[in-house]
Amino acid sequence: MRRSIPHPTPGRNPCPLAGAHQDPRIELVQVRGAMRTRPVIDLARGVPMASFGLTPKYAWDVLVTVSQNTNIKPHHVAEEIVRAVTGPPFAEDLQQH
């Protein structure tokens, strides 16, 4: 049985690079935000990698899953993970996820 390929919705670009030509000012703000949050995210990924022997990708997947399940931005989850290494344990809701 052949499956038909859906036609794109008018006005929507199905290309994954559709946003690649956005306003450079918006892109600059997004890149700067990513540069600010990346160090704590990378550090937080290292905690489960070292503690449980996770791969970098799996550690990222865990961080994203907790973020989605708690509706907390990934860099805030990362900050909590890093804080828990030297400070008090995770908040109860984060521990559950």
Tell me briefly what this model is:
By secondary structure, the chain is mainly alpha-helical. It has four helices and no strands.
Kindly list the characteristics that best describe this protein.
97 residues, 0% strand, 4 helices, disordered N terminus, 64% helix, single chain
- How many domain units? 1
Instruction: Please mark out the parts with pLDDT under 50 across 5 or more consecutive residues, or reply none.
Output: 1-8
Give a count of the beta strands, DSSP E runs of length 2 or more: 0
Number of H- or I-type helical stretches:
4
Tell me the strand percentage band.
under 5%
Largest sheet: none
- What is the general shape? elongated
- Multimeric organization: single chain
| Class of secondary structure makeup | mainly alpha
3D structure, described in words:
This protein is elongated. Residues 1-8 have low confidence and may be disordered. α1 crosses α2 (56-70). It is mainly α. It has one domain (23-96). It contains 4 helices and no strands.
Secondary-structure blueprint of this entry?
Layout: H1 24-52, H2 56-70, H3 74-86, H4 92-96
Helix pairs in contact: 1-2, 1-3, 2-3
